[in-house]
Amino acid sequence: MNKVYVDVVAEFRKDGRLVPIFFTWEDGRKYSIDRILKIERCASRKGRRCRNDVIHCMIQGQESHLFYEVDKWFMERKTA
Fold first, then answer.
1. 26-39: average pLDDT
2. Which of 78, 38, 72, 79 minimizes the C-alpha distance to 58?
3. What is the distance between the alpha carbons of residues 69 and 80, in angstroms, rounded to a whole number?
4. Separation of alpha carbons 56 and 30, rounded Å
5. Within the chain, what is the greatest distance between any pair of CA atoms?
6. Average pLDDT score over residue span 48-56
7. Which distant-in-sequence residues (6+ apart) come within 8 Å of 10 by Cβ?
8. Long-range contact set of residues 48-54: C-beta below 8 Å, sequence gap at least 24
9. Of 39, 2, 44, 49, which Cα lies nearest the Cα of 18?
10. How far, in Å, CA of 34 to CA of 77, rounded?
11. pTM for this one?
12. For residue 9, how many other CB atoms are within 10 A of its CB?
């Protein structure tokens, strides 16, 4: 996986959910998250004892995945 760490603006909802609103890609462009499709909690792929969230979302008409890794947000770089 080719991780790209991104800045994210998110809000904590009264039910305790952390919901991302928009993010800034590495080139400085900002993208709004149009819709959250699903939020999954999963174990780290490296076997560490931390929790990761995978947010399946729609961004400019395309499904994307935003990951929250304990204290950092990242996305996967699309490779050709």
1. 95
2. 38
3. 25
4. 18
5. 41
6. 75
7. 18, 19, 20, 21
8. 53/18
9. 39
10. 19
11. 0.79
12. 12
